[in-house]
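Regression check, phosphoric acid mono(formamide)ester case 329:
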Amino acid sequence: MVSLKGRSFLTLKDFTPEEITYLLDLAAELKEKKKKGIPVDDFRGKNVALIFEKTSTRTRCSFEVAAHDLGMGCTYLDPSGSQIGKKESIADTARVLGSMFEGIEYRGFEQSIVEELDKYANVPVWNGLTNEYHPTQMLADLLTIREHFGDLKGRKLTYMGDARYNMGNSLMIACAKMGMHFTACTNKEYFPDEALVKQCEEYASQTGATIRLTEDVEEGTKDVDVIYTDVWVSMGEPDEVWAKRIEKLSPYQVNKAVMENAGEGAVFMHCLPAYHDLKTKVGQEVYEKFGLSELEVTDEVFESEQSIVFAEAENRMHTIKAVMAATIQ
Ligand code: CP
Ligand code: NVA
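Current build output:
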């Protein structure tokens, strides 16, 4: 019997395939109950703290709605509204929050920060995105893939874009853990870190997964189930990196040709937010500077029948609810 009571959720590296499946099954159950209007609010009297040192729409709303659904109170701390890191160390913050809350979410910069919080908090700590990993996004993605295809094992996922950062790293780990075939299809400067590839190859040897790194779009996207991409420039990175990213990653834009090469049954996924049109401030700025009106994905693919990005976004809430329900004591 799997029990994750008291456990933190910092990266999928810390979880076995069975534990990940347990969280996916719990999320599916909680989703079904929510759809049927059956309340699951047995966490009344408990409270969670949400620390956001970077902005968010999906992750913040997912934690807040999930906490309310579970009957809990929740307190949101934004980068300017708390003392964290400026006037108070992470260790001191962790001990204060740990004495008032039953769980703490952290979104921010280095993974070492969320690890430090975990070390001192004495309550479960959940990673809501760091530079290195985005594990709650992985649960939503796995649930969405499982809902769409009916299974995970043996499915082929190709990630295009910056594969050295939180999304590329996390998808490679998630696929390796769940017996899926992962391809990073990008410029070799953006291949994932070698040590992490090695670690994932070890997971893969236990699960039947494979890891492939390729610069060849035709080969990397041929006959795969999922084409996945993310923004080319992540939160916290300086604007100066745009020029080089556009130069190196434009060949890896997800467009109609890529989806056709993947095949009729393939789906398009993206953690969101996405730059697929000129309806955003950053999208406009990039257009004015570089003349590109669509970046990592074309509007045509984003809005196509093959795109399952909004089902994926909804699943953030159900999976985050499962993480809190499974880990809070
Ligand atoms: N995918 C994701 O984490 O979205 P937010 O940045 O809006 O939370
Ligand atoms: N790589 C992106 C993911 C956003 C959910 C970022 O870190 O900004």
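Comparison notes: The two ends are 16 Å apart (CA to CA). The pocket of phosphoric acid mono(formamide)ester (ligand 1) is lined by residues 56-59, 129, 137, 271-272 (CB under 6 Å). No diff flagged against the previous build.
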